[in-house]
Structure formats: C-alpha cells, structure tokens
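Sat 14:20. Reprocessing the chain from the morning session after the first attempt stalled halfway. Input below, unchanged.
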Amino acid sequence: MPKRPRSPGRVRAARQSARVTVASAAGFYSALYALDRPVVAVYALFAPIALGVLSPIPGSSRDRTRTILFALPVAVALTALGTALAVTTASAVAGMLVIGFAISFASAYGPAAAGAVPGLLLFYVLACFPPYAPDTLPQRLGGLLAGVALLVLCELLLLPAPSVQPYRARIASALDLAAAAALAFAQGHRHDPERARRLRTEGLSLRLSKAPPASRPTGAGRTDRGLAQAGSATRRVLDQLARMAERPESATAADPPSEALLRGVAAGCTATAGALRGARAVPGPEALEEMVAEFVAVRGRPSGAGLDTDAKASQRLLECRSDLLVTAASALTAQAAVAVAIGGRRDSAGLPPEQFWYAGPSTPRLLAMRLTGNLTLRSVLFQNAVRTALGLGAARLVAGALELSHGFWVLLAVLTLGRTTAGATWSTVRSAALGTLLGALAAGALIFEAGGTVEVYAAVLIPAMFVAFSVGPIAGPAWAQGLFTLVVAAAFSQLAPADWRLAETRLLDVLAGCTIGLLCGVLAWPAGAHAEVRRGVADVLRSAAPLVQVTVSAVVRASGTPDTFGTSGDPASQQGAAEEALRLTRHRLRIAEGAYAQYRTEGGRNTVDSGPDWHLALNCASHAVIGSHWLPRQAYGPAPPEAVRWARESAGRLATAMDSAAAFPPGGVRAAPVPLPHEIVAAAPAPVLPALVDIDTWLRTLAAELTAIGGSGPDEPPPPVRGDGTRPATAQDAPSRSGG
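Finished this time. Tokens:
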C-alpha cells in the first residue's frame, strides 16, 4: 500500500510549534527557576506565543524575523502603555478602544502588518490587567525582550522555514512565455490551441490568490504597487496572446506592421523578465513605446492586395491590429510598472500619469493615502477595526467590573475567536466552547492528580505546548482552545498554588469572551464583507456607466456637436465631466476591491459562488477605467455624424446595461452594444477608422463581461467568439489597482 504523503501544512505547523515551544519554554523556565522572577517568566512565555502562534506572520523565517524586529518597538510601547493605563478600569477600557482600533486598522499596510496585529494587541491586553504595578514594568519589558530574542534565534536556527518564490519571479516566468509566443506569431506560427492553453494557465498563476501570502504585493509602498500592476498587465498580455493563438488561420494573414510590433513586444518582455531576475538593468519603456507609436501611425493603412476595396476584410484586419495594440499597450504598462517598482523611476514616461500615480509620492505619503482611503464606514478594514476595538473594550470592562482573577483570558478569547461575520463567529465560538470544556476537564484532572506537585506541571508544559501549537492551527478552534487550556493550566500552576478551580475559571472566562465576541459579531456589521462587496460593486458599476459614455464622446467628438452630457461640445466641460467620472470610479473601485479581498478570506464560503461573479465585475470596472486612459489618445480628428451617432448610441446602451447590472437581477443582464456597421467602416475617413474599431472592441468586451457577471461559473469566463472565429479584445489593459 503506498505511503500517504505528509501534508505541507502539517509540516509547517509542526516546525513552527517546535520553534515557539523551545523559545517559550527556555524563557519561562530560566526566569522562573533560575532567576525566581515570575513576572519575567510570564512575559517570556507569552511573547513567543504572541508573535509566533497568535500572529500568522507570513513568509520564510527570515521574513518573519524581519517583521518581528519591526514590531518589537511597538510591543514595548504597548506594554508600557498598558501598564500605565491599568490604574483604573475606565482608563484601561479607553486605552483598549483607542489602541484596539489603531493597531487593527494598521492591517491596511499589508499582509505582514496584518499578521502581527493579534500579537501586538496581546501585549497591551496582558499589561493592562490588575494588579496595577508600574514598578514591575522593567521586569515585564525584560521578559518581553528575552522572549522575542529567543523566538528570533529559534526562527533563524531551529528548523528555519524555507523562502517562498517571490512574486517578481512569477512575473518574469510569465513574461518569458509571452516573449516566446509573440516571437512565434511574428514568425508565422499563429493558430496553436495548445500554446493558448499554456498562456492562460500561466496567466492564472499571476492571480494573487495563487501566490503565498508572503509574496503577494499588497503593501502600500511603491514597490508592491508597481509589482501588482506589472502582474496584472502581464496577465493581460498572456490572455491577448492566447486569443491570437485561438484565432483560426482563416481570420489571420501576413501583416508586416503587426509582425514588427510582435517582435518589439517579445524583446520588451524578455528585457523586463531579465530585470526582474536581476540579470540586467531595468529597461525603460521608451523603446517599445516608440514602436507602438510607429504602429499606430500605419495601422489604418491596408497591407494586403485588395483590402482597400473590401470593407469587411479591412475591418477584420483593423480588429486584429486593435487586438495587437492592446497587447503591446499591456506589455508597455508591465515594463513601465517594473521600472517604477524596482528601477526607482519616479515618472510614467510617455504613458498616462494616472496609471502610475504612485510613482511620484514618497513612501510615507503612500502609507498615509492607504490609511485615509480606508477611513470610511464602507471600508471592511475600518469595520473590522471598529468591531475588534468594541469587543476588546467590552471584554476589559466586564473583566474589570466583575474583578475576574484571570480576566486576561476573556480578552484573549475575544481576540482569537472573533470573526468578520455573525455566522462564522457562532460556528467558531461553539467549537471553542466545546473544546474549552473538554480542556478544562483535562486540566482539572491534571491538577487534582498532581496534588500541587510542581514537577508534574513542569514536565507536562513542554509536550502540551508542542501539541497545542502544532495541532491547534490545523484541527480547528475546538482543539486549539482545548489544548491551550491545558497549557495555561500547566503554566499558571507553576507560578502559584492552584486547585481545580483554575480550570473552572478558565472555562468561565472563555465562555464570557465567546459571548462578547458573538454579540459584537451580531451587532457590528454581522454580514461581514458580503453586504459590502455587493454594495461596493454596484456603486462602481454605476459610476463606470457615465465614464464609458464620456470616454466615447471624447474619442468621436465632432466640433460643435453636443455630447450625451449636455455640455454643448465645450472641451472644458467635457474634460471636467471625464475627470469627475474617472475620480469617482477609481475611488469606488478601491473600496470594492478591499471588500472583495475580505470576502474571499471569510469562512463558510464556497470557492465557486452561485451568485454574481464579483471578480469579473471588478475586472469590468477596471477595464472601463483603463480604457478611459487609452482610448482618447487614439482619436485622430472629428468623426462623421453617422459614426458619432453610432458610437454614442452603442455607449448609451452599454451604460444602461451597467446600471441594470448594478441591481444584480436574477439571471443577470444581456448587454449588447450596437455593432459597428460595415457602411460606416466603408465611409469613415482613414484617420478615424482605427478609433472606431477600438471603440467597438472595447464596448464588446465590456458587454461580454457584464453579461457574464450575473451567472455562476468561473471567475473570468472567456469573451464570446465572433462569427468569424475571432475574439474581441479586452479593455486596454489589466486592472492596475490604482489608488490608496
């Protein structure tokens, strides 16, 4: 019978448990038995637990060590503040409310900060309980520093966790594949379904959900923002190349301008991949940008015999070139984003500065923007911080008012068992209550049998910690709370004489914490991010609808022709309407993306939802934003009146569909813009024709995404196939996740 392979998660949990157990035990036993300092022992015991178990800090041992060292000054400050504010229950509760919110809200900075939040809160919780003993502050800080130092040594020397693949390596691998595909297309190897499959698979690997938490570029700094945008743009390059490979041979033809641009895309992708690996200097996007400009200058000219007299063939050629231009624009965006992220570039070269707004501000300014952007009741990060602060404040009030001897356990239960939805909180506290009951029975039996023999507790503590810290994270809250009850019983029985009532106290305190956490879960945004993601996506779709209309009006604007917003063709009015629509859409997109990220972390959700496809809805809004950047740059002059009427009618129909989709009706909406008539193609002036094709391509893509939002199925269904076997291009680039 084949041997069952070990679970990587279990191996990681066992190794982390070994590191924390050694660090906690070494500090606890040394302080208690060698130095006879019980206060030092308590903090030396809980410091590794706080930052090693309670805090899910992501990454390798080196990554975690770096985060722990950054968090150490904050832990010292919180311990000192908690010691000072423990003078009265009122001051301790007030401090809990303020500090609980501030520390929890700091999770907006990224996964490392979010991982350290529970541990940092524990330091204040541990210090703010009676007795009020400011004279013990040096001992508390000594135990804290000793515990953290031992944890750092164990992280680096004892079974160190391996490093994870950086996200930039994933982007580099994807760019290599894109370069190979673009070069193959330039050499005439076009229709290749197997290549299309590989391209799409590689694109899926760039989703942040596919990357380890430590490598996800979700921080507020310039590097993380640039890498996130580079990953999104690279995925768009892969998707566009996959569509080229899926296009039947009959829909393609030799086209020298396209082949030249494909070679430029391949060269740009190869250079950017080398820079991401550190093998060469970071290239600027100017070379590829110049090739794109040359392609734009000639793409409206037919390159095959007889195409100038065949409107349908000419339109088909322009559609292929429009798709290629989207691919080149995405490659250009990826190259520029990498130049900002790791090359230190502080401008966007010749690209729209709105796409790279984060290149100019300083790092402190970017961090401040991340925080201020989430200071709204609509932000789930804000909601979670408020929920945590209220829960901890209520727990501290109850513990102080009832003078609980181990009230610390009440807050610890609130801190570890609170969830973002009422349903998930109820499920967790129900399991935790059962586990604590069983753990209390086991602890009571241990204390009864030991009969005050300290050596028994000392012998039980180490194996109890190892089992609790390795099994608890894997088996769930029942096992975690039950085993941890045994740990605290074995530890506190060594600090002072104990009887079976210690286990009873532990059970009652945990039940009190569960009740408080459940009440907070019911009263403070009980639906978690589900309600917010629905509201946020609806708002961003409604704001994107006028953005589509004003963008199309800017592309086809004819002198003196009133636009759809009643600005009578005044350029200043149209520019103001466009800027306001773009600002509102970008702001709402940031809030909706944050709600969706929280929604995907909440328990009890299926991996495939039966309701609206939120991820695709966000992509649709992102494509509208990026299209508003790129499409007006391709306008070459006033369009004929019939072309203007077609463009505005088609954009108006799509805007109406966006408004309808925002209500998420059962079965979704059927969005269908007005097809670009061949008569308009045949009669349109050559300089304007590419812009009309770009509008048609953009609106078709947005319509396909809107139609797919209402159904179940994969997050990103492929766009529908046209009658000639080709697929419409997506928006002008991938989501940039711009904004705070």
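DSSP finds 25 helices and no strands in the chain.
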